[in-house]
C-alpha cells in the first residue's frame, strides 16, 4: 500500500474538508478551525488563502519562539509582519519571504537591540519549526484513496 515506506505517528494532524467550490475548512484535534478560500472569490470571504496561512504560521511560530529566546527584552507590543514576493521565475512557488519584527526597543535596556537580534537569529536558526521547514524544505508524500503514493518529493 505505502510502497514499503514506514508510516510514523504524526507530530501534528490537520483535517481539511471541502465546504464548496474552492472553499475549505481546516480543523485540528483540539477543535480549532480556520477557513480557506480563493482570494478572488467573494463567496469564500472572510477566509485565508493557503499561502496566507503559511505566512501566518511563520509569524505565529516565530512569535512564540521569540517569547522565549528574547524574553530578557520587553516586547509586549511586538508585531510580526510576514510578506511574500513571487514572480514568473518562481514557477508557482513563493519566491521570497520577508519576516519583519516591528516594535520600539526599550530605552531602559542598553543591550536590548543585541539581545533581541540574538533571539530572532536563534528563532530562525534553531527553534521555529515552521520557518526552518520553509527554509530547508521537507519531504512531501501524497497518498491516494487506495493507499498508494501518488506523489513524492524531497
From TrEMBL:
UniProt cross-references to Pfam families, sorted A to Z: OsmC
An annotated Gene Ontology molecular function: peroxidase activity
Keywords, alphabetical: Oxidoreductase, Peroxidase
Q: What is its EC number?
A: 1.11.1.-
Task: Output the InterPro entries linked to this UniProt entry.
Answer: KH_dom-like_a/b, OsmC/Ohr_fam, OsmC/Ohrsf
Record-given protein name:
OsmC family protein
Amino acid at each position: 500500500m505505502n510502497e514499503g515506506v514506514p508510516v510514523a505517528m504524526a507530530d501534528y494532524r490537520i483535517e481539511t474538508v471541502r465546504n464548496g467550490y474552492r472553499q475549505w475548512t481546516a480543523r485540528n484535534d483540539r477543535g480549532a478551525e480556520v477557513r480557506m478560500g480563493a482570494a478572488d472569490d467573494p463567496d469564500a470571504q472572510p477566509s485565508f488563502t493557503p499561502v496566507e496561512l503559511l505566512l501566518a504560521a511563520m509569524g505565529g511560530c516565530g512569535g512564540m519562539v521569540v517569547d522565549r529566546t528574547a524574553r530578557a527584552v520587553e516586547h509586549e507590543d511586538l508585531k510580526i509582519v510576514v510578506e511574500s514576493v513571487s514572480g514568473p521565475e518562481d514557477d508557482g512557488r513563493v519566491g521570497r519571504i520577508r519576516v519583519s519584527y516591528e516594535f520600539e526597543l526599550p530605552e531602559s535596556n542598553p543591550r536590548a537591540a543585541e539581545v533581541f537580534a540574538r533571539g530572532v537569529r536563534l528563532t530562525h536558526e534553531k527553534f521555529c519549526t515552521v520557518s526552518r521547514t520553509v527554509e530547508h524544505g521537507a519531504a512531501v508524500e501524497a497518498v491516494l484513496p487506495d493507499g498508494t503514493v501518488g506523489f513524492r518529493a524531497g
